[in-house]
Design brief:
Elements lengths: L1 H4 L4 E6 L3 H9 L7 E6 L8 H7 L8 E4 L3 E3 L1 H9 L5 E6 L10 E5 L2 E6 L7 E9 L1 H14 L10 H11 L2 E5 L5 E3 L5 H15 L1
Helix pairs in contact: 5-6
């Protein structure tokens, strides 16, 4: 809904566990302008989300948004990311008073991304799992994931580990969405809070 409202015309969903249920929910969507297709990742049981990006690598051409499937966000977040100036790769970040072991931590320097990962020691923000790529950034990311997955030891890597490597070479920036609403659906306890958040968005729509 919010991707369509932000002007996204086409969305590709990479499925794996519970693929049929996801496809059924997509079929129930009432979308006026955005086309949604799916592609199945048969390796979901033995690989992490870097492999999901590899499955969808042909889609990394031109201007692209990459969004974690368990990230919920209000419309203004998508609008801010799409409008953000910056490098070929832009990572959406938020800041808070403290971070836990499960947070995807980020170290920034002004608007540049310095490092990203759950176990980095220096950080001042977290990734919300929403990125934007320019045509050059898309090609750079696609080449990097194709190279990485030539090594089977990389099957269990997160795609953000590739972003971390690219950031060390430069050309990766951040877009802060501090003050805007978003959430992740990681644990059963997240369900109630996320339902309340989404109901608030629907009430304002």
């Amino acid at each position: 809904m919010h991707l369509e409202a932000a002007g996204v015309e086409e969305t590709l969903v990479v499925t794996g566990f519970g693929a049929q249920l996801v496809e059924q929910e997509i079929a129930r969507l009432s979308l006026a302008t955005m086309r949604v297709t799916t592609i199945y990742n048969p390796f979901f049981g033995v690989a992490d989300n870097l492999a999901s990006c590899w499955i969808a690598r042909a889609a990394f051409e031109g201007d692209v948004l990459l969004l974690n499937g368990d990230t919920l966000f209000e419309l203004r977040i998508a609008e801010r990311l799409i409008a953000a100036p910056g490098a070929g790769i832009v990572v959406t970040i938020d800041r808070k008073g403290g971070y836990d072991a499960d947070d995807m931590k980020v170290e920034t320097r002004a608007d540049a991304l310095v490092a990203i990962g759950k176990t980095i020691h220096t950080y001042d923000a977290e990734s919300i799992g929403f990125l934007r790529f320019s045509p050059e950034g898309s090609a750079r990311f696609r080449d990097a994931i194709e190279t990485a997955l030539r090594d089977p030891d990389n099957l269990r890597r997160w795609y953000l580990s590739i972003i971390d490597e690219l950031a060390r070479e430069g050309g990766v920036s951040v877009c802060s969405i501090e003050g805007l609403q978003w959430g992740e659906m990681d644990f059963p306890a997240d369900l109630t809070a996320n339902e309340t958040m989404v109901q608030g968005w629907l009430a304002r729509a």
